[in-house]
Design a protein that fits this description.
Elements (H helix, E strand, L loop, with lengths): L1 E2 L2 E2 L10 E2 L2 E2 H15 L4 H6 L7 H18 L1
Antiparallel strand pairs: 1-4, 2-3
Length: 74
């Protein structure tokens, strides 16, 4: 499932452009990452895990996204 798919308005009657958007999993991960990074109480944990480039934030965000995808199926 995709988030934010759209068809561009017709510029020419023969040309339509369809954009599939991003996956719903990626959308959920982006929202989770935003929450993780904006929570000042998590800053010490982020630093303890190796900072922004350790992969911990991404793994955590996709973990939350996967939980949301699973909850949608129930």
């Amino acid at each position: 499932m995709q988030a934010f798919p759209f068809i561009e308005p017709e510029q020419d009657e023969n040309i339509k452009a369809y954009h599939s958007g991003i996956s719903l999993r990626d959308y959920f991960a982006a929202k989770a990452m935003q929450g993780l990074l904006s929570n000042p109480k998590l800053q010490p944990e982020i630093l303890k895990q190796g900072g922004a480039f350790s992969g911990w934030i991404e793994d955590s965000a996709y973990g939350w996204a996967d939980a949301m995808m699973k909850a949608r199926k129930e």
